[in-house]
Structure formats: C-alpha cells, structure tokens
Amino acid sequence: MNKIFLLAALLITTIQTDGQNVPKIEQSTADSLNFSGGKVVTAYVTSWSETIPDPMEMTHINYAFGHVSPSFDGVVIDNVNRLKQIVALKKQNPKLKVVLSVGGWRSGRFSEMASSSVTRKRFADSCCQIVKELGLDGIDIDWEYPTQSTAQISSSPDDTKNFTLLMHDLRSALGEQHILSCATIASAEYIDFKECIQYLDMVNVMSYDMGDPPYHHSALYPSEITDWMTTSQAVEAHLSSGVPREKLVMGIPLYGRGVTENDGSMTECWHSKSEVPYWADKDGQLVYGYENERSVGIKCQYVIDHDLKGCMYWEYGGKEQEPLRHRIRTLLLKKSDEGKLVQSPEIHQRY
Question: Could you tell me which residue ranges the GH18 domain spans (predicted)?
C-alpha cells in the first residue's frame, strides 16, 4: 500500500497513536455481531505499529507485510513476533481470520518470481508452509503493480499473464480451505480479472490515494474536487473488469492527505456531491481531504446498497480512529437494526 500520512493537527480522528492492550471482550458484544454470513470488514494491520487491534472490530486482519525473498522462491516476514501476537487474537474471537499480505509499495521481486514456473511453485509452497506453521487463514498479494515500475520495482510486459499463473499456483498450494486475495489499484488496471478471478476469494480495491490537494483522495462520487478516479468509479471499473460483487471489497482510508497544520484560516467543509469532508483555505480551495463518521457511514451504506462483499481499511491505528472503526462495525456487522445509517449533524456545506 502506497501511503503518505499527512495529518491535520485538528483532525484527531486520523492521527495514529500507540494503543493499549485489548480489554477482555464482553460476551454481549460478541453476541451482537455477525462474523459469518454477513459483510466482510478487513483491517490492514502493520508490522511497524505497536497497537494491538480489538479483534471484535473486524472479520479479517491482513498483516502487512511479507515480501518475496531475495532468492525469488520464498517469503520473508516483517516482525514475525508481532504477526504471532495478531494470530493470538483469534483466542478472543475464534471467527477472526488472519491473513498475511505479501507486498506493499516498493516491495519488489514479484516480476522475477512470477516469471518462472519453478520459482512460482516454490513461492506458493512457502506461502502454504507459513500459513500452516503460524496458524494463518490465507494469503493476500499486494503487488504494486504488475507491468509497472512506478514504485521502483522491476517489471515486465508479461507480468499480467504471470500474475494469473501465480494465482493458479497459490490456489493449488493453499487449497480451497484457505483464503487467497489480492490488493488492486483503484482503476482495476494491470490484472486480467476475467482469467484469475476463479482463483481469488476477495479483491481488495485500494480506493484511496486517488488525488492530492486541491483534489480529494477518497471521494465517493466525481465532482470538481476529484481527480482521476473516485471510489464509486473504482467499484465500477472492477465490476466491468470481471470482479463479481460477491468478491469485491471496497477500500476506505482512515487517514487524510494534505496540509499538516491549521493556521486558523481553514474551514471545515462537506461536499454534498462527492460525499466527503475536507478543509478549505480562505479562497475555498481544498487543502486537506479526509474521512469522518458521516462519510464512512455513507461508504458503508454504498457497500450494502450495491451488494458488495464488504470493506477494508488502511490501516488500523490508535484510539483516535475508534469512531470511524466503530461506524464501520456498526453498519456492516451488527445483527440488529442498530446498523441503520443515521446522518451525523450537518457541517458547513460549501457546494
């Protein structure tokens, strides 16, 4: 995942801090949530954070990251002891699924590994061995991106074809009982979904980082404050590319992009067309785009209305994110009518 954390000081819902140990889960909380048969809520949890996630806030954890080994035939894991801590959370929530995400921004060696049937099979076997040894539930491939060297990694015109072969080999090694997913660019480019979707359980759409000020990076719908792509356009691009709704997981960022401090001249705004909040300067121009409870709630309702598999978010942070995480959980995992969308109080609407 390519992330730039540019946080406005006053927007504490997007600031990350170290977390505390997760308290014992009350049975009443567990009983009110639907961890099977409902929507998927996937949280990307990083190797470099010290925050221990609340295992009742999601159905899946994707641990970031593992990487293709220097010899192109295996997997190396960042901070494996932390991964073991995350797997241990399944004792508190036995229905929680923990998946190793291999890749990330500037994580290379995919092209070389996938180009040979020998190294592909060895890599797939290594993934399977790690899943079994660590008690994981599957593998997520975050290759950014096949055929592209934007992230300063090697690439080849054959990467798209070889990505499909890699998915085939991973599915063969993991079997049907384990999860196989991938993370994809918002535009759905570089992967032949019509060929490889048969091997995948889920496609995690990175529908964020789609613009920098004066554009919002995670707007739901297109408008004058959006750039090359929006979340709704990302969903449609994937559906058109061959990803079925029941496998499509829509991305939501728990961070913002733009200015790092407020000098007192910025105004909090809501864009009614794009359905996102932002900060504007004295000239009315967007200088910081982010998410709040209202926009996250609207995105979750979009997932429900369009019958998508669920949502994922990057990344699980500290307590300041709790209102956003709880909004997602309430809307997508609650068994009762508690999850009905309730509009938060209106804030200043510039458009």
Answer: 39-335
